[in-house]
C-alpha cells in the first residue's frame, strides 16, 4: 500500500488501490516503517469483521511495545487508553463510561447541537464561497464534545489545535507534544471539577461507580482525552465526506433536498461510502491466526482497512456508487465488536442535524472547485478533507 504522505493519488482516492489489493488477496503482508518489518493489511469485509471481533487480535499496545526501544514521548494517557486495552480492563472501563455516556445524554444534546448548527450557518454568505470544513465540520463537533465534557469556551481553540496535531502523520515530535499538552490540560480540568463539581459528562465520569469500583486519576485523564479526540475528529471527517458524496451524486442529493426527513436513514450509506476512519486503531496477533486463508504469525500488527471493507463488492454490490436505498447498517465505519465506537449515536445526531439544516437553508449549494482539486488531510488513520470549498 502506498504511503499517503508520498502518494497524493492514494490520499485523494484510496479505493482503487484497496480494490486491487482485495482482488489479489483480502489479507496480505505490507511493509511498515524501516528495518524490513511487516504488518498485515485487511481489505475484505468478511475478514475485517472477523478481525475486529477476534480476541486473539489484541489492542494492548503497552504489552506489544514493552520490549521495543522507542524515542517516542507520547503521554501515557494517549498511548494507553481504553481503546488500547483488552478485557477485562477494557470491559471494566467501558462499563463505567457507558453509565455516563448514554443515549439519553445525546438526546438531551440535540437542541444544543441545533442551536450551534444554526449559529454557524448564520455566518455563511448568502451568495458566495464558503469552506464547509472550517465553517461547520470542524467547529461543530468540537463545540459539542467540549460542551458535553464541560470544557470552558476559552479553552476550546487549544483543544481543537492539540487534537488536530495528534493526527499529524509523519510528525512524531508534534504528535508527542500535543499528547502531553492535552493530557496536562485534562489533568488540570479534572482537578478543577473536583473542587467545583458540575453536571457535565466529565463530572459524571469523576463520580461514576460500579459497585465499589471507580476510575483512577490516570484512567480519568485517559478517558477524557480519548473522548475529546474521538468525539470530534471522526465527526468532522464524517460531515465533510458526507457532504462531498452527496454533491458528487446529484440525483441522491436532490432526493434528500426534497425529503430532508430522510437524512437519518441515509447516514449509514454515507458512512459506508466514504468512511471517516480509514484504518482501525492498532491491533496485533497474540498467537498465529488464519484470516481469509492467510496465515498471520504471532506478534505481528494487523491493520484493518475499514474504508476498504466498506467497499467490498462481496458484501455491498456496486460499492463505488452511493445508493441511499441500500441497507448499509452493517457497515464497519464505527468498528465492530467490543470496541465499536461508543460515541456513534452522538456522531449520527450531529450529522443528521447538520445535513438537514444545510439542505434546507442552502438548496443551491454546489462545489466551488473540481473534485480533483480538493485537498485531503495527511493522516493514516482518518480520511477527511482539509477543505471543502462550496458556493451557496
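Q: What amino acid sequence fits the structure above?
A:
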Amino acid at each position: 500500500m502506498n504511503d499517503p504522505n508520498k502518494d497524493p493519488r492514494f490520499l485523494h482516492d484510496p479505493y482503487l488501490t484497496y480494490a486491487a489489493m482485495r482482488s489479489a488477496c483480502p489479507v496480505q503482508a505490507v511493509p511498515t516503517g524501516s528495518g524490513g518489518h511487516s504488518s498485515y493489511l485487511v481489505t475484505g469485509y468478511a475478514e475485517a469483521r472477523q478481525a475486529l471481533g477476534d480476541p486473539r487480535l489484541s489492542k494492548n499496545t503497552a504489552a506489544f511495545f514493552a520490549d521495543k526501544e522507542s524515542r517516542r514521548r507520547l503521554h501515557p494517557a494517549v498511548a494507553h487508553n481504553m481503546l488500547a486495552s483488552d478485557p477485562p480492563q477494557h470491559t471494566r472501563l467501558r462499563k463505567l463510561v457507558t453509565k455516563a455516556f448514554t443515549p439519553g445524554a445525546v438526546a438531551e444534546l440535540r437542541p444544543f447541537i441545533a442551536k450551534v448548527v444554526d449559529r454557524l450557518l448564520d455566518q455563511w454568505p448568502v451568495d458566495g464561497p464558503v469552506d464547509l470544513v472550517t465553517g461547520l465540520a470542524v467547529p461543530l463537533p468540537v463545540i459539542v464534545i467540549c460542551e458535553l465534557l464541560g470544557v470552558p469556551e476559552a479553552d476550546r481553540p487549544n483543544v481543537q489545535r492539540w487534537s488536530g496535531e495528534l493526527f499529524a502523520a509523519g510528525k512524531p515530535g508534534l504528535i508527542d507534544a500535543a499528547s502531553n499538552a492535552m493530557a496536562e490540560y485534562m489533568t488540570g480540568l479534572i482537578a478543577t471539577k473536583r473542587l467545583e463539581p458540575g453536571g457535565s459528562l466529565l463530572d459524571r465520569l469523576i463520580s461514576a461507580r460500579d459497585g465499589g469500583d471507580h476510575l483512577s486519576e490516570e484512567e480519568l485523564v485517559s478517558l477524557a482525552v480519548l473522548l475529546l479526540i474521538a468525539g470530534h475528529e471522526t465527526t468532522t471527517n464524517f460531515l465533510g465526506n458526507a457532504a462531498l458524496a452527496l454533491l458528487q451524486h446529484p440525483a441522491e442529493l436532490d432526493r434528500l433536498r426534497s425529503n430532508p426527513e430522510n437524512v437519518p436513514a441515509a447516514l449509514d450509506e454515507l458512512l459506508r461510502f466514504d468512511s471517516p476512519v480509514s484504518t482501525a486503531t492498532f491491533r496485533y496477533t497474540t498467537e498465529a491466526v488464519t484470516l481469509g486463508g492467510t496465515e498471520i504469525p504471532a506478534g505481528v500488527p494487523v491493520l484493518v482497512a475499514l474504508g476498504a471493507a466498506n467497499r467490498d463488492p462481496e458484501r455491498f454490490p456496486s460499492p463505488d456508487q452511493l445508493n441511499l436505498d441500500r441497507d448499509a447498517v452493517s457497515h464497519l465505519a464505527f468498528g465492530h465488536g467490543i470496541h465499536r465506537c461508543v460515541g456513534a449515536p452522538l456522531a449520527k445526531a450531529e450529522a443528521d442535524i447538520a445535513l438537514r439544516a444545510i439542505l434546507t437553508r442552502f438548496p443551491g449549494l454546489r462545489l466551488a472547485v473540481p473534485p480533483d482539486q480538493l485537498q485531503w488531510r495527511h493522516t493514516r488513520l482518518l480520511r477527511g478533507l482539509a477543505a471543502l470549498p462550496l458556493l451557496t
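Q: And what stands out in the fold?
A: Residues 1-5 have pLDDT under 50 and may be disordered.
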